[in-house]
Amino acid sequence: MILSKPRALCRGAGFRRRPRWRPRRHRQERPPAPFERRRRRLLRRALTLGLPTVWGAVAITYKLTCPLAQQSGLGARIVTSAVFFAVGTGLVFHVRHALVRELRQVREVAGAAQNVLLRPLPPRIDGFALAAGRLSAARGALVGGDLYEVAATDHGVRVVMGDVRGHGLAALGTVAAVLGSFREAAHDEAELPQVLRRLERALDRHLRERSRAEHPAAPDGGPLAEEFVTVLLVEISRDGDVWALNCGHPWPYHLRGLARPLTGGEPLPPLGPFPLPADLAAQRCGRLLPGDALVLHTDGLEDARDGSGRFFPLQSVLSEAARVPSVAPERVIQAVYTRLLRHVGRLPSDDAALVVLRNDRGRVPRQTETGRRARTMS
């Protein structure tokens, strides 16, 4: 005779109980996402229209059915006025609440889109501490006609700073075209002049497409032929040498105790109106030692004026910020924009962008003569 083991013992020994068959229940399918969004939108619209309807119905019902509203005495008129004042106030607050909610949603979407276009820079990149700031002349906009980007590549740390003709939201398309091209060319091209040529081709392509879309009857592109972008391309090599290509942009400042402008000769014309020259070579502007900082900016800072017409003293403000032993990029950004708003007293009439990089590398190797000669020949 075979004895059956207890059920608990079988479970403990590793035996698995066969599940009982159960009929499949038909689950209620969840409505698709578009249907759900449509239902919520209709519900919000009904609430938006329903509350003013209720307020109006209350006022009409009071006027037609309440005996006090039919009287012509002073007390009755005061009560009737108070009722209609409460109804009007409720309608005004309801409309204001709906408009504020809609404006908040629009600002959130616009802020997310603008941050994707001009994304925030990391606090550190390839041995450099960096910070960036931007101030748009268009009220409510985070990004205008200024552009900047920093990329750590195999060829060194490359930075682009540019300024599109005009300001505000109308320049976002050109900013997107230039930045998108730089983010690819900075890693693909070994030489800085080739990066600039990629930016030129991207800008020309963007202007042609925009011209065909806005002026289909104008073969020469119409007013878009006057569009231009000032661009400053900077490359910081492993040994701290600063190489630049300047197309009509303000030169950067070198912070080491004081703020001194870095210059590399006569700048090229801005991108757009004139083609780049056939012989294009990067210019050596100086060297960043450990602890030194490089400040790139747009002309919206130096061209800002106060009520009496005086320009903003950017170089003196940067010199004051560079007197501390360790220049913090965030403090430089904060000091410049605080003094700028105090100087102007309102939003500036042009976009103003600022990028600060501090060399935190512990040791800068000495450049060999062979490497220096090879770089100069390139």
UniProtKB/TrEMBL annotation:
It comes from the Bacteria. Gene3D superfamilies: PPM-type phosphatase domain (3.60.40.10). The chain crosses the membrane at residues 75-95. Keywords: Hydrolase, Membrane, Transmembrane, Transmembrane helix. SUPFAM superfamilies: PP2C-like (SSF81606). Residues 125-359 form the PPM-type phosphatase domain. Pfam families: SpoIIE. One of its GO terms (molecular function) is phosphatase activity. SMART domains: PP2C_SIG. This is PPM-type phosphatase domain-containing protein. It comes from Streptomyces longispororuber.
